[in-house]
Amino acid sequence: MARTQLSFSVETDGMLDAIADLERVSEALPRRHGAAFRDLDRRLCAIFEGDIAITPPDVRYLGDGIFVAVLPIELSALLATARRIGVI
User: Fold this and answer.
1) CA dist 60 to 7, 24, 37, Å?
2) pLDDT tens-digit series, residues 8-43
3) Is the pLDDT score of 2 beyond 80?
């Protein structure tokens, strides 16, 4: 009797790396001074404390049973700001 087997995987490495970057941003911000850094810190704290809802990660199909989890847009925006102002 033939048996059909389905297998798939979800790649999360990119999302986990981005979350690690957010942790580094959070650790670096207390040593930075200026309005842009304070604003980023407030936004980061609001998300981590649950005051701002974030969308679930987007999961996209790449083909051949492989999916990739994509960081929510709210967290991507924080990382973009952190890069723009030189935190990371």
Assistant:
1) 16, 27, 33
2) 899 999 999 999 999 999 999 999 999 999 999 999
3) no
Provide the residue range defining the domain that includes 70. 9-84
Classify residue 2: in a domain, yes or no. Answer: no
| Single-letter residue type at 5 | Q
Residue 65 lies in a domain: yes
Asked if residue 73 belongs to a domain, the reply is yes
Phi, psi values for residue 35, rounded to 5°: -60, -40
26 part of a folded domain: yes
Q: Which two tokens stand for residue 88?
A: 């990371």
To which residue do tokens 């690690």 refer?
A: 20
Whose tokens are 């798939």? That residue is: 8
